From TrEMBL:
The lineage of its organism: Bacteria, Pseudomonadati, Pseudomonadota, Gammaproteobacteria, Oceanospirillales. This is Precorrin-2/cobalt-factor-2 C20-methyltransferase. Residues 10-224 form the Tetrapyrrole methylase domain. Transmembrane segments: none annotated. It comes from Halomonas stenophila. CDD domains: Precorrin_2_C20_MT (cd11645). GO terms for biological process: cobalamin biosynthetic process; methylation. Gene3D superfamilies: Cobalt-precorrin-4 Transmethylase, Domain 1 (3.40.1010.10), Methyltransferase, Cobalt-precorrin-4 Transmethylase, Domain 2 (3.30.950.10).
């Protein structure tokens, strides 16, 4: 509840970009360094990738608000408990940061990549509407850093670019892959084998590149054919378009 005479704060969803501090926007940098309250998602027992990205940037007296997921990959996302647990989790986080904003403090919520692109912040954003002021600071997406790391343009002329998550059924993946010119696949993880089969079914396996840790110190770019049986969490698959050009 806002105290009489206290001007409510604003909650900022701050896009950090793909993982390197020098790829943040000037606005993101300013907000993070000046923030009195910093919130970020993390897996229980972990520092959290978003928090790691901003190491050395926070004010000495900044209040940190880690938001620990109750579940990540422990159960399938189609298990009824998955949505129920996460919905309750997001409601709790919204209540906490809305209370802080209501007391007159701004809160910067750290978001890997862009806040509106497959980000957890979206679940806070929709629940915060009408409660407090919310602003979003866009960031460079991980996929942009990934295709840039290959040293080749992703789309030419009239190329159609499709962005998929590897969590989808194999037949749907194969259908979409076969119909597109350029391709980005995210959320690969344990779905690598399924994705490989879908690519082979679509006749595109030989065109695929796998980028690990795009823009980070551990960055690695290899043809999919040279990838082993497992890939890191921060992995993105890319197929370049080859469309019209002068």
């Amino acid at each position: 509840m806002t105290t009489l005479g206290t001007r409510p704060g604003t909650i900022f969803g701050v896009g950090l970009g793909p993982g390197s501090q020098d790829l943040m926007s000037v606005r993101a940098d300013r907000l993070i360094r000046g923030a009195t309250h910093i919130a970020y998602f993390r897996k229980k027992g972990r520092t959290g990738h978003a928090r790691t990205i901003v190491e050395g940037m926070l004010a000495a007296d900044a209040v940190e608000l880690p938001m620990e997921y109750p579940v990540t990959t422990e159960i399938p996302f189609d298990d009824p408990r998955y949505n129920a647990w996460l919905a309750a989790f997001y409601e709790r986080q919204v209540a906490e940061i809305a209370e802080i904003a209501g007391a007159g403090h701004d809160v910067a919520v750290l978001c890997e990549g862009d806040p509106f692109f497959y980000g957890s912040f979206m679940h806070l954003y929709t629940r915060l509407q009408g409660r407090v002021a919310v602003e979003v600071v866009p960031g460079i997406t991980g996929m942009s850093a990934a295709w840039t790391a290959t040293g080749q343009p992703i789309t030419w002329g009239d190329d159609v670019l499709t962005v998929l998550t590897a969590t989808q059924p194999e037949d749907r993946l194969a259908e979409r892959i076969a119909r597109t010119d350029a391709l980005v696949v995210m959320k690969i993880g344990r779905h690598l084998d399924k994705l490989r089969r879908a690519l082979a079914s679509a006749g595109r396996e030989g065109d695929a590149w796998l980028i690990e840790y795009a823009s980070m110190a551990q960055q690695r770019v290899v043809p999919l054919a040279e990838v082993g049986e497992r890939v890191p969490y921060f992995s993105i698959l890319v197929i370049h378009g080859n469309g019209r050009r002068p």
